[in-house]
Amino acid sequence: MSLLRKRKKGALEKKKQKRQKGTIDLCGYELMLENGVAQVAPGLFSQTVQFGDITYQCARKDTRENIYSTMSALYNYFNPDTSVQVTITNEPVPAEEIGNRTFFPKTDPCLDAYVDEYNRILNDKMREGVSNLKRQRYLTFTTKADDFDSAIPKLARMRNDCTQALARIKSKSEPVKGAERLRIARGLLSPLSPFDFDWDNLSQCPTARSVDFVAPMSVDFKPNGRNDAFRADGAWCCVMAIRSFGSILMDDCLASIVDLPIPLSVSLHLRPIPQDKAIDMVQGKIDWMDMEERGQKSRAASKGIILTQTSTALRYSRADAEELLDFLRNKNERLFEYAGYAFTYAASEEELDEQVDRIISTARGSALTVEKLSYRQQEGWGSVLPFATNKCDVTRLLTSGQIAMQMPFASLEINQPGGIYLGQSKITNTLAILDRLSLPSPMGFDFGTPGTGKSNAQKSVWLQVRMLYGGRAQGIWIDPTGEGRPVAEAGGGVSIRLAADSGQFMNPFDTKDVAALNEPLQKAFKVDAFLALSASMMAEGNQGLTQAERSIIARCVEEAYARSGVDGTPVLEDFYNLLLEQPEAAAKGIALRYERHVKGSFSFFNRRSNVDLDAPMVNIDLHDLNSDMKVFGMLTALEQVRNRMYQNFAEGKTTWLFIDEVQSLFKHPAVIAYFESFWAEGRKFGLVATGLSQNASFMLGSDIGSTMILNSDYLMLHKQSTVDRDLWAETLNLSDEEVRYIDDGIKPGDGLLVAGGARMPITNELPKGRIYDLLTTKPSEVNALGGGGRSAR
């Protein structure tokens, strides 16, 4: 190699090293530990906490005020030696996933056509809203310390206090680990590039640092001669600053920006000012305005003019300053240096300019003035990085209350990987995907007047359970209306029809699926079941069973099993005959109630079971039973489900149970007690139960019913009657806006989803196709499809 070529190569290497060093300086930190603690400058350390969204925009006024007070107190918590940064990001889902996501895997050939259609439908819906973005919220804070060992306990104390404060408004939070903090920084430094990092990478190269993996390879701060944008590794980027606020600061000013379906990051930098210094600053401003007022009057008097009042601007400024001084002295407010930034990026210059215009115009609609940072894109970029260091001098003074008004909570999303699709957000069109198994109590209810879509919604869930979990779950539908057979059979399941002419029988005494349980426990369960069965047949109203009647029933149930032998199973007739043998007159009355179930056309429950619940989807059809028999049939079916639940639990399966017309079980005290026991016990044995009802007031009017509803973490409310709307508003403390999502103006399938602490207005409209045809219960459509036996709901 010639000397000239060597010199050229050396010069290129030096230039490359210089460029690389320059981009490393942009990373915003010096060292990062695996636990997420970062050194951002000598003697300055930071940590980041990720916190979740909550229902704010649709909440009641008193709830919003509580959230506001909590956020204000959280900001007041930090001392003057601390810098704080609130960051909200919209991160794009990888391009290869958009429109190509597999929501349901193919596990059974009989389901393939439904899996393909559901995946297509949900991918189409995903493109409609912001479901191609992942929204995250972060709180970053700094502390001064000599080294990491001194900083870690200080940051841990601050982290725990912040976590507790956020928990009071039901916002879940957790510390962000080091690798995730690096990924977040990389996503802002080189937005269009992949991030491949592992701590083992550092151990393999003694000279390597984490910043080598985070820093962009190239940056141009004057692309095409511009001073209000820059390029980083091919991505066009722009940082904007919040310059001013309108006369009224609205609590959705940030939410309106964050709800934009574009990649962006919004950051708020806060630095507390010592209280005594803040008071002196404001008092000094008031003193200056007093002097200015005297000067205006003196100058006017020298001209022979007597001023009764000074300029409007000065009067307003003085009033604002006096109000601020009162807040600082008497209302627990503190003063902060505040700076707000918005950052967005795109693959092309034209796309970037369009996104920037959307942000600026949207902010203007919320009375915010947002401007591009001309000639200061580099400083603004460094300020956007989540390390709580503001590198750009665009600060202004705000109180903790004014900052708390800028709520970091936008439109609530329920998007849990591996969950069930329930609809789309009415606000953002985001997919509502819920993992019921992740809820503290996965039990739930679906309420709505007839024709509002509750049956379709839950049958859709039933089918999705089959597609999503395969052999790890079993779905059972108790079907008083005769609608479930097509769905069960489509999923490779069976429909069991209980009727005088069906030839399919369920024995209330059957215990074959719980043979592994100890005998006393089996008998205790059956006694409860027969108390409920007996109560369901009472003609005297709902006064319940007497203690004598309860004792007689328990005695005869246990004796029936004793006489049947070790391998035998009694039937209703054995129980009936034992009642007739008892000396008490009350026993004869109980036997009389059972007589029609033992003799005549209703005796099909007086048979040994010839059906099983082994199929992955089971529909128990009670449509052909009269109203008096349906509750008896439902209780008998629930006993079979309970037996099956224990077996599924032993095999590691969850049991998904759907009970239509669940209000039928709340007419007799003994039936209610049985169902409450079944509900509470099921949660311990992998039961995910959903009750469907058109009569919310009936259940909310029962102490046990309302307790079961409030202790269930899943509620779907479709259109409600006027009476029921008022009850829900009181029971769930609904806001006026939330009530509008369940009133007469909504379409079938629309409603309010309540999952844990989250509330989300949703719409659930499936396009015409195979799945729509399977789920529909509209009479005209059912008849056209040749399924005229199904009734409308």
Give the SSE layout.
Layout: H1 3-24, E1 31-32, E2 38-41, E3 44-51, H2 61-77, E4 84-92, H3 112-128, E5 133-144, H4 148-167, E6 173-175, H5 178-189, H6 199-204, H7 211-214, E7 219-220, E8 230-232, E9 235-245, H8 253-258, E10 264-272, H9 275-302, H10 312-330, E11 335-346, H11 349-365, E12 368-372, H12 377-384, E13 396-399, H13 400-404, E14 420-425, E15 431-434, E16 444-447, H14 454-469, E17 473-479, H15 485-490, E18 494-497, H16 519-536, H17 547-564, H18 572-581, H19 585-598, E19 617-621, H20 627-650, E20 654-659, H21 669-682, E21 687-693, H22 696-700, H23 703-710, E22 714-717, H24 722-731, H25 736-740, E23 751-755, E24 758-763, H26 770-775, H27 779-784
Parallel strand pairs: 16-21, 16-22, 17-19, 17-20, 18-19, 20-21
Antiparallel strand pairs: 1-2, 2-3, 3-5, 3-6, 4-5, 4-10, 7-8, 8-9, 9-11, 9-12, 10-11, 11-13, 14-15, 14-24, 22-23, 23-24
